[in-house]
Each structure stands twice: as C-alpha cells, then as structure tokens.
Write a structure and sequence with these properties.
This protein has about 120 residues and is an alpha/beta fold. It is built from four helices and five strands. It has a five-stranded mixed sheet with strand order 1-2-3-4-5, with helices on both faces.
Length: about 120
C-alpha cells in the first residue's frame, strides 16, 4: 500500500483470497492511509486476487468498510483481470451508495480516478 501523489489516491495491491476478513483488515489500513494523506480515492489492484465469499458476506462488505473508516464518498477503482468474477462485488458496493468501478486497464482506471 502506498500513496500516489499524482492521483491523490491510495494504491493497494492485494493478492490471495479476497473475503470478508481480508476486506475488513484491508479497510482499516486503507482508512488510516486516507486519513494520514487526505487521499480522495483508492486504486485497488485485485488482478492477483480471488473473491472467496458467500453472497451474504459480500453484502456485508460495504458496511464493514464504512465501520473501518472508509467513507462511502471515497472513489474506488477496482483493477481486475476478469470483471465477471468481481461484478457482484461491484454491484453490491454501488447499491450501497459507493462510487466504484471495475477496470482491466490501469490507465483507464487512473483516468477515471482523476475525473
């Protein structure tokens, strides 16, 4: 995890099983970085991650992120290899009032975050 001054964003690289527990731990760390750097967005690189969660756990993820300190207004780009595998996660976050979008191209993700 590092702060990207050009984007005013937190860059997060996650590898492994992306489940409720991983999101909770990651959200706490992201919240601390956002507060420390006054960042306005997050670029989540999930290209080497696999969503391993029940639908109920995915539904609970947006609230867990808020409880960890990541506000709904934080713009989040999810960089993935296979959008189909993350579409449900994106939909749940969108339906919870979050600003999030899936990308397969890092330049497109960065461009969207800068808008």
């Amino acid at each position: 995890m590092k702060f990207d001054r050009d984007l005013n964003c937190i860059n997060v690289v996650f590898t492994g099983e992306f489940n409720f527990s991983a999101l909770s731990d990651l959200a706490e760390e992201v919240a601390q970085y956002l507060k420390k750097h006054e960042g306005a967005c997050v670029l989540n690189d999930l290209r080497n991650a696999t969503v391993i969660s029940s639908p109920l756990s995915v539904y609970q993820m947006p609230q867990a992120a808020v409880e960890a300190g990541v506000k709904q207004g934080i713009k989040r780009a999810l960089l993935v290899n296979d959008p189909g595998k993350f579409r449900f996660l994106e939909t749940v976050f969108l339906n919870s009032g979050n600003t999030v979008q899936l990308f397969t191209d890092i330049d497109e993700a960065r461009s969207w975050l800068l808008q």
